[in-house]
TrEMBL record:
Originating organism: Leucobacter exalbidus
Membrane topology qualifier: Multi-pass membrane protein
Family: Belongs to the 4-toluene sulfonate uptake permease (TSUP) (TC 2.A.102) family.
Keyword field contains Cell membrane: yes
Endpoints of the signal sequence: none
Keyword list, A-Z: Cell membrane, Membrane, Transmembrane, Transmembrane helix
Transmembrane segments annotated in the record for this chain: none
The protein's name: Probable membrane transporter protein
Transmembrane as UniProt keyword: yes
Compartment(s) of residence: Cell membrane; Membrane
Source taxon at top rank: Bacteria
Amino acid sequence: MELHLIIIALALALMVGVSLGLLGGGGSILTVPILTYVLGMGPREAIAASLFIQVRPAQSACSATQNRAACAGRAAP
């Protein structure tokens, strides 16, 4: 991958991160077009990468919460 594409992708990723911080959601709607049109990924690969990117922070947030029943998909006692 060329250096200028990496720099553009990092700048766009920073913009996505800031917008997610401000809006609180909707990362896939921004991430998939960046991965597809800027980095040249196929649509299926871009969707899979976007899901992977979003799952890791969600798992970290779940493990950091005190209510582990909500993270496991169970009702709290």
